[in-house]
UniProtKB/TrEMBL annotation:
UniProt pathway annotation: Amino-acid biosynthesis; L-threonine biosynthesis; L-threonine from L-aspartate: step 3/5; Amino-acid biosynthesis; L-methionine biosynthesis via de novo pathway; L-homoserine from L-aspartate: step 3/3
Record GO terms (molecular function): homoserine dehydrogenase activity
Organism of origin: Pseudoflavonifractor gallinarum
Gene3D superfamilies linked: 3.30.70.260, Dihydrodipicolinate Reductase, domain 2, NAD(P)-binding Rossmann-like Domain
Enzyme Commission number(s) from the entry: 1.1.1.3
Official protein name in the record: Homoserine dehydrogenase
């Protein structure tokens, strides 16, 4: 029997306990050993939970129990979550997590610590919720030089955009629904301002390009500046808004990496990814384009990925820890501004437009408001081309 301790009994933690319990037969067969939850670390009472008899408040009990081989960290954040992860790894216990903030900030050192102590640190659930992406990227696509990763990486914002565009909901009402469904972070500003997607593209980029990429190195914008006007202009030309995380290898080996809303053509498969679904396209130099799609957040999809990692540990207890990357550095990242693309621009108080742009229209636009698509250019070229043409309200890239 493999004994598991779950740290945190929120959306994901309760899902992990449920899935391990409900699917115990199949899980035990496939892992070739029974897997049971021995402890759940909590900081308040859950009198109605069927797992209340396993709840404890002192992490030392878990740390010091030699029977516990796997610790599932689903508390979130980089405070107690980091401390307990380190203590578990030092005690030789493998750690499975959904905590992308911790992996994005400290993945390199935690993977090293796991290796030093003959344990494993696994985080399939940290990107794309229930979508298998970490293992495919590190194993199935290992023969490739990865040239580009582009993804819809945040379920909450994709849900909000879908509900605003298709359901006519306000931003606040759509966010409330996402929170009620268990998709949002404890502090949803991490979702709507793009930080969650930033952490995820950092993890994918670190894995794919082999050096730790830190969130502070990644220019990040969320969806808060998009308005109904931008949705209408986009729709008029056959585009939809998607919040994308992108990492693109440059000729010198550095990465252009950033998170921002993009206009995506309706023919592009990413444009049809709706609600809480995420999709990630990976371009390898041998395989070409590969796309991963599924539920990017939520209790049971995320638990599915967490439990699969627990089963992996059960089958390969002291495995070589196949997830790894080298330390980061300032030489890993190239300025994203230099990347050329077409741009969507909305101006206020504009009497004229730059030459060669494709103007967009929407009903009831106020006088002086103009929106258009440019040709391909860098961020610096865009700014230069716009000087003297009115106030720039929004300028975002088109995904080509
Ligand atoms: P929740 O806020 O629902 O759950 C976190 C739980 O951890 C809460 O119950 C909280 O307790 C508990 N907790 C926090 N600190 C401690 C502590 N020191 N000791 C004991 N318990 C603690 O978050 P989620 O379950 O949604 O997310 C958990 C992790 O999974 C996060 O890292 C998140 O980013 C990640 N994740 C979430 C997904 C989702 O769809 N929700 C998908 C993929 C990843 P209390 O209730 O008392 O605050
Ligand atoms: N808040 C995250 C999201 C959870 O909405 O995508 C899944 O990582």
């Amino acid at each position: 029997m493999i004994h598991v301790a779950i740290l945190g009994y929120g959306v994901v933690g309760s899902g992990v306990a449920e899935v391990l319990h409900e699917n115990a037969g199949a899980i035990g067969r496939r892992a070739e050993e029974e897997i049971g939850v021995k402890y759940i670390l909590v900081r308040r009472d859950y009198p109605d939970s069927p797992f209340r008899d396993r709840m404890v408040r002192d992490f030392s009990l878990i740390e010091q129990d030699p029977q516990v081989e796997v610790v599932v960290e689903v508390m979130g954040g980089t405070g107690a979550a980091k401390e307990y992860t380190e203590r578990a790894l030092r005690a030789g216990k493998s750690v499975v997590t959904a905590n992308k903030e911790l992996v994005a900030e400290h993945g390199y050192e935690l993977l090293q610590l796991a290796r030093e102590h003959g344990a494993r640190y696994l985080f399939e659930a940290s990107v794309g919720g229930g979508i298998p992406i970490i293992r495919p990227l590190s194993q199935c696509l290992a023969a490739n030089e990865i040239e580009e990763i582009t993804g819809i990486l945040n379920g909450t914002t994709n849900y909000i955009l879908t509900r605003m565009i298709r359901g006519g909901l306000s931003f606040e009402a759509a966010l409330k629904e996402a929170q009620d469904n268990g998709y949002a972070e404890a502090d949803p500003t991490a979702d709507i301002q793009g930080h969650d997607a930033c952490r995820k593209i950092c993890i994918l980029a670190s894995l794919a390009f082999g050096r730790h990429i830190y969130p502070r190195q990644v220019p990040t914008q969320g969806i808060t500046e998009l308005t109904g006007a931008d949705v209408a202009y986009a729709g008029s030309a056959g585009y939809r808004w998607k919040l994308l995380g992108r990492a693109i290898r440059q000729a010198d080996g550095r990465l252009c990496i950033y998170v921002a809303p993009h206009l995506v053509e309706e023919e592009n498969p990413l444009s049809g990814v709706e609600d809480v679904f995420n999709a990630i396209t990976v371009k390898g130099n041998a395989v070409g384009d590969v796309m991963f799609y599924g539920r990017g957040a939520g209790k049971r999809p995320t638990a599915s990925a967490v439990v699969a990692d627990v089963m992996d540990v059960a089958k390969h207890r002291k495995g070589p820890g196949e997830l790894s990357w080298a330390p980061g550095g300032e030489d890993t990242v190239a300025p994203a501004d230099a990347l050329e693309s077409r741009w969507y621009v909305r101006l206020a108080e504009a009497a004229a437009l730059p030459e060669g742009v494709q103007e967009l229209t929407r009903p009831d636009a106020p006088a002086g408001e103009r929106a258009f698509l440019t040709g391909a250019m860098s961020g610096a070229q865009l700014r230069e081309s716009l000087s003297g043409f009115g106030r720039v309200v929004l300028a975002q890239r088109v995904l080509d």
